[in-house]
Amino acid sequence: MRRDHKKLVFAIALASFITKVQSFEDLFTHGVITVKVGAGTYSLLVDTGSSNTWMGAGEPYQPGPNSQDTGETVYVSYGDASFSGEEFTDDVTLDSLTIQGQSIGVAISSTGMRGLDGVLGLGPSGLTQGTTSGGGEIPTVIDNLFSQGTIAAHLISIAGKQISYGKTDASTFVGAITYGPITGTSPANTFWGIDGSFTYGPSGTSILATTAGIIDHSSTRTLLASDAYSTFLKLTGATTDQKTSFAVLDSCDKLESISFDFGGAIFQIPVEKYRWPADQNTVIGGDVDKCYLAVGDLGTKSGHGLDFILGYNTLKHFTVILDTGNSRVGIAKGNASLL
To answer: 216, 241, 297, 307: which is the annotated catalytic residue?
Structure first.
């Protein structure tokens, strides 16, 4: 959930760990992970677009025996959601993986969370800078899993319906992993930022030339800079539905694939992977017989340093490696059996 960017906040349920892998149920929107913090258990939004971990939006925080109030306040704004409260440290357990003394936010007030207890922040730690009254940078849960020796590598891998901590699971993808460095373009480089381009159809008509964007599993849709989104609408024949804000057509029959070029590799996004699932039309307030597309308008023109967001409805079809240790992102074609 990128700070200061509006997006839908929905939830999907995550279930049990297998060693250092956690599986989850796909409800076409976001991931929600069950996390034990102190003496309580919370349902937190899995968010690769922000980095603070916090709870208290729903279930109140129950401090554990090792809980400590740091005396600092904390505030994070996500555009259409926010929270403010106090910073504590406490033990955080991701099923079998325990982090000692993790900084957490405990909400006194929050908006826009729609039944969630809070957020599990999996973005780079730099995004925490300035979120507490002390102003410093806060190590994330992944930072601390690595620094405390709980995981062997400073990375996570998100694939289909599971998250792997500290490793890449070869069973989750087919073919090779393509890696690219974190983009040098600001402000995308403060997130899981990458450089890439989008084309449409077998003719390779450009939608968006090579530019910087980010990975964000809490964004339901893939979002394009406004000028690129206008091009996408013209190429597909879609219009923006005022009721749902989604791109919409009467039928998906004439649509063609989108191609995403990253690190010199071309990743195909077939129609069935970027259309909104028809049986979920009513979830967004849409008509049952329309074709909605999970590609939206970022709200700013290209050239501002963050021109696209690869969102959950696209990313779930790929294995994505967020590698802090090597300052890079990896993408591979997902194993269809995990979807």
So the answer is: 216
Q: Report the alpha-carbon distance of residue 225 to residue 231 in Å, rounded.
A: 10
pLDDT in tens, 118-173: 999 999 999 999 999 999 999 999 999 999 999 999 999 998 778 899 999 888 89
The three-class DSSP label of residue 46 is strand
User: Is residue 47 flagged as an active site residue?
Assistant: yes
When computed from its CA atoms, the radius of gyration of the chain, rounded to whole angstroms, is 19
Catalytic-residue membership of 195: no
DSSP run (H or E) holding 320 = strand 318-323
CATH of 14-151, one of 2.30.30.60, 2.40.50.140, 2.40.70.10, 2.30.29.30: 2.40.70.10
pLDDT tens column, 301-335: 999 999 999 998 899 889 999 999 999 999 999 88
Q: Is the pTM of this model over 0.85?
A: yes
For domain 171-338, give the CATH superfamily: Acid Proteases (2.40.70.10)
